[in-house]
Design a protein that fits this description.
The chain is of the alpha/beta class. 20% of the residues lie in helices and 27% in strands. It has five helices and nine strands. The model has no long low-confidence stretch (mean pLDDT 96).
């Protein structure tokens, strides 16, 4: 059984696939923070802006693989051409996403994307691997399609990521009280280091869920 916070159909708001229609599957739980505000200060990732605690969101609950794949497919428009697209996120999706669920999604025709913190090995068969490293954790995934780094993070060294085997590198301004300054900084970094592309969280200023 898989513990799911919420499932919904939306538009990808950030990263390389910004603007892509997608079913978002948010798994419950994370290995870098409990999700409880009382634990935020001792968490490895203190800036997480996602509610991933529990199973009380839209279509949240506990499901077996085929049931979960069927529910996700039911949200995809029947008349839409091309493969249905699903983003597995969290929390940390790789605490639960396994070969059995990957197979269930592929059997339904899904293109499977994940957004992970990179601390857990990725099962075979994932079509798009997006890794978002968090300083203070051990990065075990060094290969994928997109590396999306929230910036700045304390003592971050871009050089340690630029040699990794990713096709795309995205720099995303940290969303805190100094976000406007972080956007300016990220723009300058991307101009100086064109390996990186600016990623903005468009869903936040467009009102997309």
């Amino acid at each position: 059984m898989y513990s799911i916070k919420e499932i919904y159909y939306t538009i990808q708001g950030e990263g390389h696939h910004t603007g892509q229609a997608a079913v978002f599957l948010r798994f419950s739980g994370c290995n870098l923070w409990s999700g409880l505000e009382k634990d935020r200060e001792k968490a490895i990732c203190k800036f997480c802006d996602t509610d991933f605690w529990g199973t009380d969101g839209t279509l949240g609950g506990k499901y077996e693989a085929n049931e979960l794949a069927e529910i996700c497919l039911s949200l995809w428009p029947e008349n839409r051409k091309g493969r249905p697209y699903i983003v597995c996120t969290g929390g940390e999706p790789l605490l639960q996403l396994d070969k059995q669920l990957v197979k269930a999604f592929h059997d339904k025709g899904f293109f499977i994307a994940i957004e992970s913190n990179g601390t857990i090995e990725v099962p075979e068969g994932i079509d798009w691997i997006c890794i978002s490293p968090k300083l203070g954790s051990e990065l075990t995934v060094s290969k994928g399609h997109e590396l999306k780094l929230v910036y700045p993070q304390a003592k971050v060294n871009l050089l340690q990521y630029e040699s990794l085997d990713f096709d795309h590198f995205s720099l995303q301004p940290l969303d805190d009280c100094n976000q406007s300054d972080h956007i300016t900084t990220c723009i300058e970094v991307c101009k100086q280091r064109p390996q990186w592309r600016l990623s903005l969280q468009t869903h936040k200023f467009t009102g997309i869920r």
